Amino acid sequence: xxxxxxxxxxxxxxxxxxxxxxxxxxxxxxxxxxxxxxxxxxxxxxxxxxxxxxxxxxxxxxxxxxxxxxxxxxxxxxxxxxxxxxxxxxxxxxxxxxxxxxxxxxxxxxxxxxxxxxxxxxxxxxxxxxxxxxxxxxxxxxxxxxxxxxxxxxxxxxxxxxxxxxxxxxxxxxxxxxxxxxxxxxxxxxxxxxxxxxxxxxxxxxxxxxxxxxxxxxxxxxxxxxxxxxxxxxxxxxxxxxxxxxxxxxxxxxxxxxxxxxxxxxxxxxxxxxxxxxxxxxxxxxxxxxxxxxxxxxxxxxxxxxxxxxxxxxxxxxxxxxxxxxxxxxxxxxxxxxxxxxxxxxxxxxxxxxxxxxxxxxxxxxxxxxxxxxxxxxxxxxxxxxxxxxxxxxxxxxxxxxxxxxxxxxxxxxxxxxxxxx
Length: 422
Description:
Blueprint: H1 5-8, H2 14-33, H3 36-44, E1 55-60, H4 64-74, E2 81-85, H5 94-108, E3 115-121, H6 124-127, H7 137-150, H8 154-162, H9 171-176, E4 180-186, H10 209-218, H11 225-234, E5 253-259, H12 261-279, E6 282-285, H13 294-303, E7 309-315, H14 330-336, E8 346-352, E9 366-369, H15 371-379, H16 384-389, H17 393-400, E10 403-404, E11 415-421
Parallel strand pairs: 1-2, 1-3, 3-4, 4-5, 6-7
Antiparallel strand pairs: 7-11, 8-9, 8-11, 9-10
Helix pairs in contact: 2-12, 3-4, 8-10, 10-11, 13-14, 15-17
């Protein structure tokens, strides 16, 4: 739940306070109805696990712990083993490798009489990590950092990651074979491409080493030479490729998406309509997913909001960082970019459903902006463009107010944007 609700509502202007209250109530509702237990119950509850000799649970990503806890509560018998890959984001860590090795070792011991329940969520690409032979953890960290700073999309970053990995791009399915595999996914990826979510450890991958090389070339990414050479040397060779759609091992694998961006969007719409029945606001839902550069998308959303309306959108934007970026994330940068076009009767907010927006000194879910924030910023001589140029949105909202703080939510369904005019 939102930890700083009291401070966010401590504003003198009644109209501003009411708009903020609408925003915060919608956020609270989204987090409640999209809890992993509520999402998994109808899917995992149908599983007949009595026919399997051994049942293990593998939980990967930002929602790993909450998904695993929910799974254990729902299952009709206690799993024989529960393993996690939930350390290191947005950059991989030694802890992530250690946990991944435990999963690999457990996977190799399974037989055709066993079942692996695999729970996947966003963030898994960085947390489920075992580099390919000849590639070090430092190589992967530097490659991920470089692509993030270059402004590469999450799909592009994951394409490269998959081709530097022993577990991504369907390779976990191969490690689990001949056991049966049931995958349940909370998706934070626009379009729900299973090969992209957590870099698709259970799913066929259509991308190739050639595609990965094109991405490095496109951004002129200064990745470690070992990475560039590994990818370049494997172009056209199948033995190190990710798992392709016609592979027989995938016949024993089924994967279901239990929630995605639209789950969060629908929850936001539901609450907004409930609020609007009393406030007479019009609810506008943008069905097209938000993508693209955060600072360019933000102003467009601001302009689209008519008077007496609650506009809701979802998706996942990107941020291209300067050479020495400050702190912040796509949600805070999105909101910061809306200031110039903000109306006097408007509040705009954007928050990550995982509760973690980019790399900041503390966990911040996102931010909101309205006249109150602008007044404080003006008095403090905070110039919006200076903070945007340094990708330092966290520092702006830390001083001007407006940060939305939830802590880690144990979920990951992308971002929700709210624009309220009253």
